Amino acid sequence: MAAAEVKPTVKGLNRTEALASIMQDPVWDVVVVGGGATGAGVALDAASRGLKTLLLEAQDFSAGTSSRSTKLIHGGVRYLKNPRDWGLVHDALVERKRLIDNCPQLVHAEPFVLPCFKKWEREIYMAGLGFYGAMAGKDQIGRTRMLKPEEAEKVLPGVKTEGLLGGVEFFDAQFDDARLNIALIRTAATHGAVCLNYMPVVGLERIGGLIQSVTVEDKHTGESHRIRTKMVFNCAGVWADQIRRLADPQAAQLLRFSRGTHVVVDRSFLPGDAGMLIPKTRDGRVLFAIPWHNAVLLGTTDVEVREAEFDPQPSEDEIAFILETASGYLAKPLYRSDVLAAFAGLRPLLRVPAGQSSTAQASRSHSVISEFGNMITIAGGKWTSYRRMAEDAMLEATLRHLIEPRLCITKDLPILVDETFNPEVIEEAACQGPENDAKVIEYALYARDFEGACTAEDILWRRLRVGVLNAARAQELLPKVAAALEGREYAAPAASVANEAETHAEEAAVQCSGKAADEVAEVSTEPSSKSVKPEVSAEALETPTAAEEVVKSAEADAEVLAEPSSKSETPEVSVKALETPTAAEEVVKSAEADAEVLAEPSSKSETP
To answer: pLDDT tens for residues 355-369?
Structure first.
């Protein structure tokens, strides 16, 4: 199916049309810098108010923090420890319900179980989680309850049962972060916003104390464009300070960065529908184990970093920490070999108050800062509160007379989801094996034409989630998807010399039997006329002459193997094992036995 033949159910993202819009050199009411959750939320709020809105993203939409979350829409259980954060929790729980109502295709209520292994632990956590649920008021999405040991085991299959004294069940919401981000971008486009990825802002022009224009550079063409605007929303996440310093190189640092790593393992470790909350880890955080897209997502860590990298990577220490912590609560222990994929994201945290040293203690509250005349920076925050953050930023812009006062309508505004394809079905098939690659290619062409995807990584990591579910399959698919996006046929690379040598060694092992034949296969690292026999048909092997030839060939092989050679590249241990007359005789005896069998015709002639 050609991608052009499929029509989207919501407005597509056409980069050519978007580029034509900025070439006309209009004056935009609003320029939004950053295409993650915060930027997408601001662009949708502004466009839905009828403002002429342009969104600019330096990478792909949601390529930063917004595609690397724990996939939870939640109030934040761990913030209950600090009464100062209770208002943050309440607001987030209200937004949680709004998001479920506005986008039920991508956001749903999810049960969680906190397993208890100590006396009175169940009752203590029941009080805390009961309070957490009650904070949502009329926006509760499920009932918190205590579970007996047998109930906890039933609701949470895969939990460690030894010493289990029960648990507490509560509810939060789960979502697909990258897909929700694309849905927000496309909904904003439907309301008139122009959205461009791979278009980093490289300069700000200030005249008379106000930003008059932004300069962007197209990553695909290298061309620069000057874009005039009435105001700028800085929604660049962990890179917000870099944008601020385009306006003032001496601007003080607003943000601190924390890296959170997540690990993906097979669904068999937690085969039920409920997630698990591990209430306390060494670094003072909680840890989740969540069924997600036919796998189990484990996370997250909290490691402070100094630089905001575009592609942060998980460390082996973080992966080991997650596996060790989760293994203490699972029936089956986890090992490094069980990891299907791992990914890391950077959290934008407001500068930590004096005396607070750990980023794990830092709140996920957000701040709206008006600066440089007509720039508003949104710093901090989290996915759950993206809509509220956008509304707060638009209110600030209104109070500063940077935009006309208009009503916010996003509280009840449906988020449009394109249902032409079901990406979850496609990615599940893709993870099963290469026999489903054609489905991936078909969707990739559609995502290129209608969802703003420009690279194979955009497809496999964000439009589909193969990259965060099965790293090995994603790497296999990368060149195939890249070829399809470029409109060319994929050509598989030729087999390497090493692979050919390995194949010859396996053939030699099949033609000989027993222990000596295994040793021959181990030694044979290079094709050789003395060690690799040409293929012989079953009929030819059923004659005494052919049988004698097998014996002679085996004797020649034995003589060669018995003589050490300075040119041999065989590991020393294998050479010594074959340098004895006994090993050489075994080759001959084995070949003679094979020859006797081959010399006798059989009605069941299915020669191996």
So the answer is: 444 444 445 688 999
